[in-house]
């Protein structure tokens, strides 16, 4: 449930922004074309939303079609923020 609430909070935060690449670059601290679990966890915590690595991993899984995801590319990040699918897709989630 917490992961869904975090996803909704992120969507509210970016609801009126339309420059997806600029938002992505803010999160891609290493400038590698992907957002790592660590960077996402830190960004979300910086927003005042407490999140741990397992919750971050579940959040990533909710936005990707991959079964094991440790980073998000631009398309997956856009899906996280703006996708209309609310399913969390974490049936086979394993804590790290």
Structure characterization notes:
- By secondary structure, this protein is mainly alpha-helical.
- It has a single domain, classed as EF-hand (Recoverin, domain 1, Orthogonal Bundle).
- 50% of the residues lie in helices and 4% in strands.
- The chain has helices at 2-13, 20-27, 37-46, 53-61, 74-82; strands at 35-36, 71-72.
- Strands 1-2 form a two-stranded antiparallel ribbon.
- Helix 3 packs across helix 4.
Number of helical elements: 5
For the sheet with most strands, the description reads:
2 strands, antiparallel
Please identify which CATH superfamily we are dealing with: EF-hand
Q: How many domains, in number, for the residues?
A: 1
Mean pLDDT: 83
Radius of gyration: 12 Å
Shape: globular
Key structural traits:
5 helices, 96 residues, Recoverin, domain 1, 2 strands, two-stranded antiparallel ribbon, mainly alpha, 4% strand
What secondary-structure arrangement, pairings included, does this model have?
Elements: H1 2-13, H2 20-27, E1 35-36, H3 37-46, H4 53-61, E2 71-72, H5 74-82
Antiparallel strand pairs: 1-2
Helix pairs in contact: 1-4, 3-4
